[in-house]
Design brief:
The chain is α+β, with helices and mostly antiparallel strands. It is built from 6 helices and 7 strands; from the N terminus they run ααβαββαβαβαββ.
Length: about 250
């Protein structure tokens, strides 16, 4: 082989090698890019998971049900009758005299959180001085009953959506009315669980006596740490309720 042909052959080999190298580097570059993207997505997923675990309330909303597995006992709850005999109980869901038209409590008991009970006793003492006392319609409500109520009447203006639960399920809400100290009825304008505008706090087409009774109850309850909801004159939430968890225990009926 002469010198010219040899040089040409070497040159051809070098050109071919360079072209081949260029072709082979593309898949490698694409693979590296995919690996980097995968790592970025994995890191982002880990951050989201950590954020959600830090905020269990978010998981409750996303899953559509609260985590009640660890809250099926009555720890932190008290039976109001064991602390005071100055209240009247008319627990509607222990009867069929309610919007469900059936008995959903085995017996008439009023359980609430300890802090809530203390505030209720103080409010009731104030009312007793003025010739009134508190009568309970509902107190702590098991989460399973909440789901049943929502199935019958899925209106968030009156029944809390089980996805987030009710303050009743936390033992920090009560449904109440006023009665005379001796037990006589007090006119509040509507019956308990009246799902209409007449039960709203803003409704004013009522007698002066009814407006006065509602005002007395509201001002007394607010003084002792409770607040209202706009649609029900009988419903009061305890303000300091944020640390209470949803529960689903059933009380004894002995």
């Amino acid at each position: 082989m002469n010198k010219g042909k040899l040089i040409g052959l070497i040159f051809s080999i070098l050109i071919f090698g360079c072209n081949q190298a260029k072709i082979d580097t593309k898949p490698a570059e694409q693979t590296l890019a995919l690996l980097e993207r995968s790592k970025a997505l994995q890191l982002r997923g880990e951050k989201v998971e950590q954020s959600m675990l830090r905020n269990k309330d978010s998981l409750v909303i996303l899953n559509g049900k609260p985590d009640i597995r660890l809250n099926q006992n009555n720890k932190g709850f008290v039976n109001i009758e064991e602390l005071s005999d100055e209240f009247i109980l008319d627990m509607k869901y222990a009867t069929s005299d309610n919007f469900l038209k059936e008995k959903v409590y085995s017996c008439a008991k009023c359980y609430v959180r300890e802090e809530v009970a203390e505030a209720l006793i103080k409010a009731n003492n104030d009312l007793l001085v003025q010739g009134y006392r508190i009568k309970f319609f509902d107190c702590y409500r098991p989460y399973s009953v909440q789901k049943k109520m929502w199935k019958i009447f899925p209106n968030p203006g009156y029944v809390a959506d089980p996805k987030g639960g009710s303050i009743h399920n936390k033992g920090a809400a009560v449904d109440i009315t006023l009665v005379r100290s001796a037990g006589g009825r007090v006119d509040m304008g509507t019956d308990f669980d009246h799902f209409g505008k007449e039960a709203h706090h803003s409704y004013t087409k009522l007698s002066k006596a009814v407006i006065g009774h509602r005002k007395l109850l509201r001002e007394t309850m607010e003084k002792h740490g409770f607040k209202t909801i706009k649609t029900e004159w009988w419903h009061y939430n305890f303000k300091a309720r944020t640390n209470f968890k949803i529960s689903d225990f059933r009380w004894d009926c002995e």
